[in-house]
Design goal:
The protein is an all-alpha fold. 69% of the residues lie in helices and 0% in strands.
């Protein structure tokens, strides 16, 4: 049995496809190299501003080059149309259209991200006919996967290589997505490609395949994510046919896929009959094993931080889905609507300072955001693509390997975490694989060289690349201004912090979190800043500006509970406690066990001398968040002003037990225990 070969091609694809392979492969190779390795401390969302910039520019730029060279392909476009139409309708009719279009900060899981994912698929399909580009992309993918695995091991060991990460976050591996689950998802895509290179006749790539395989597996073990282990199991099941296959690429192969994969007469019958069955059996067996593990072993040990361990969190979604069953609330609006589904048991078990921002399950998150229609459109697309792969897979090792990784990734996507659907790497590899192994004479392409439609397509994608540069570039600059502003805030320079946030907002006005940060610094200035307290004019100007920023934030994010609490806190700080109390009552109607709401309610109640109500609110807050001393400190101050030093001392002492370094509690305890002359 001859080993699989990964050789230099002797011929490229059809006329026009072989032109400019270096230029055409630049964007895809950059995506699979830059995006997975990019990591910014504390940016654990699927996209950070810099990743958003890279993806937003490289995908349309690559499509523009493909259009200009006449190689743009649109496979299965009819199955993408329903997903786009439903997502667009959900965006327009949802609770926060602007946020649904661009996505929430550092998540970017909006309609634009969906377009980039589809664009990645088209980009992969458009470069797949050139064996040179195939090899560059796949080798970049598996080498990058090995580096991701090595970084995961380093992080588990507490090493911060080149000071590019946060070594304290040892449970999160550096990867495309910045978390252990997504590091594993990246691994199960690239590991089978590395294994295929182990069977190569080229000794250099056999060594590279061995190194990347070891690094990737070590990274998977280091991350410890159950979703990644499950995906690896599915990948192994899908790879099974390749290990027993009799047909291998021969020495005359012209690329990663030999002529046998295009010739139905060379062993296709047995592969077509057995491979899909083995794939189905492997997936079903893996899912059955997952169900047994969850019910008997894993489930009782899971907490809210586990990728697939958010089983209790999933139970909060049905009531939200029922409110908007057909089209949902709009892409990336989970944080605005899911708090309405949280019940008292969930809050008691998990606390309530962190808002419930997503279900972390693709079916549930899709139902919440685009409803039954969106889920049907997405699953139909995935089923069609999977069926294409299964029907046309020909016992060739490399396409089998790529399919194995994509299948494992799909399981991670469906059952471990919802966000991977927006990531460009698997979409692009899927597009490359689709054209490489699915013979389809009906594949759509751009017109011949020099025709008007081709020029229009190239110019259009070029304009999108420029728009992505402006949009994401502004967001990246705004991110740097935000970091500087927060640093100034931490040093007590609130005036500089406000100026920095104003500058950041001007660069990225759609980033509602920048408006939100401004209002929070404004509240701090109103309560702590002496230069504001001493000037009525400056105080009035700051209050008006802060309310304006909150209005702008709510225009983007809708009735986001966090923004409502920001408004209530600003009302209290600006001398409007009655309005604040009314708003807190409204918040607590659908979020009854919110620590932050009860903490703010107590402050507003104390401002209007409703001391009993303030005491009750702070006692509730202390019960909800026993690890936070603020409510206990407020109770101590309340009792001190009421002339009850014993109760005040008890509260201050309790706060110091929670946080021995709390200066307000220490000062309060000293005041009520040391007699003054």
């Amino acid at each position: 049995m001859a080993p699989a070969t990964v050789t230099e091609p002797t011929a490229s694809g059809p006329t026009g496809v072989s032109s400019y392979p270096g230029l055409r492969s630049a964007a895809p190779v950059a995506l699979v190299v830059v995006v997975p390795l990019f990591f910014v401390p504390w940016a654990f969302g699927p996209f950070h501003a810099a990743k958003w910039l890279a993806v937003g520019v490289l995908v349309p730029a690559g499509l523009a080059v493909c259009a200009a060279t006449g190689t743009l392909r649109w496979p299965r476009w009819k199955w993408f149309v329903p997903l786009v139409v439903v997502s667009l309708a959900a965006t327009v009719l949802g609770v926060a259209p602007w946020m649904s279009l661009l996505g929430s900060p550092n998540r970017n899981n909006g309609l634009f991200a969906l377009f980039l994912g589809i664009g990645s698929f088209v980009l992969g399909a458009s470069v797949a006919a050139d064996a040179v580009v195939q090899r560059r992309i796949l080798r970049a993918a598996f080498v990058t996967g090995g580096v991701v695995g090595a970084l995961a091991v380093a992080e588990r060991l507490g090493l911060d290589i080149a000071a590019v990460g946060d070594a304290g976050e040892v449970t999160r591996a550096r990867s495309t997505w910045g978390s252990a689950t997504f590091a594993a998802a990246h691994l199960v895509i690239v590991l089978p490609i590395a294994v295929a290179h182990l069977r190569s006749r080229d000794p250099r790539w056999r060594i590279a395949g061995l190194v990347c395989s070891v690094a990737g597996l070590a990274g998977l073990l280091a991350t410890g994510t159950r979703g990644g282990w499950l995906a690896a199991l599915v990948s192994a099941a899908v790879m099974a046919p390749a290990w027993v296959a009799t047909g291998r690429p021969n020495a005359g192969s012209t690329g990663l896929w030999s002529a046998a994969s295009r010739d139905p007469g060379r062993g296709a019958e047995s592969a077509a009959g057995r491979s899909p069955l083995l794939v189905a059996v492997g997936v079903v067996a893996a899912l059955a094993a997952l169900a047994v593990l969850v019910l008997t072993v894993i489930g009782p040990q899971l907490d809210r931080a586990s990728g697939i361990g958010r089983l209790d969190l999933w139970s909060t979604t049905p009531s939200v889905i029922v409110d908007r069953p057909l089209l949902g609330a709009g892409p990336d609006t989970q944080r605005s609507v899911l708090p309405a589904g949280i019940d008292e048991d969930f809050e008691r078990d998990h606390g309530s300072e962190e808002l419930h921002d997503r279900a972390h399950s693709l079916p549930l998150d899709t139902l919440v955001t685009t409803g039954i229609l969106g889920l049907a459109a997405l699953l139909s697309l995935l089923v069609v693509l999977a069926g294409d792969f299964a029907r046309n897979l020909q016992r060739e090792l490399v396409p089998t390997a790529v399919t194995a990784g994509l299948a494992g990734y799909l399981v991670t996507l469906l059952f471990a975490f919802g966000d991977p659907v927006i990531d460009p790497i698997p979409w692009m590899l899927a597009g490359l694989l689709w054209v490489a192994i699915v013979p389809s004479p009906a594949t759509s392409r751009t017109e011949s060289r020099g025709s008007a439609p081709r020029v229009v397509a190239a110019v259009g994608f070029g304009c999108l690349a420029i728009a992505g540069l402006v949009l994401a570039g502004g967001e990246l600059l705004a991110e740097t201004r935000l970091d500087s502003a927060l640093e100034a805030q931490s040093t007590g320079d609130l005036s500089s912090a406000l100026d920095g946030l104003e500058s950041a907002v001007s660069l990225a006005p759609a980033r509602f979190d920048l408006h939100q940060a401004y209002s929070r610094v404004a509240v701090q200035s109103l309560t702590e800043g002496p230069e504001i307290a001493d000037s009525d004019a400056a105080r009035a100007e700051l209050i008006a500006s802060a309310f304006g920023h909150l209005d702008d934030a709510q225009a983007v994010a809708g009735e986001d509970p966090d923004l409502l609490m920001d408004r209530a806190e600003l009302l209290s700080a600006s001398g409007q406690p009655e309005e604040a109390l009314s708003l807190y009552d409204r918040i607590l109607e659908f979020y009854p066990r919110s620590f932050r709401a009860h903490l703010g309610l107590g402050l507003a109640a104390s401002q209007v001398n409703q001391l009993d109500r303030a005491e009750q609110a702070w006692r509730t807050a202390a019960d909800l968040a026993p690890g936070d001393p603020r409510a206990l400190v407020n109770l101590g101050i309340l009792y001190e002003r009421a002339g009850d030093p014993d109760a005040a001392a008890e509260s201050f002492s309790a706060a110091l037990e929670v946080d021995p370094g709390d200066s307000a509690a220490s000062a309060g305890l000293e005041r009520v225990t040391v007699p003054t002359d």
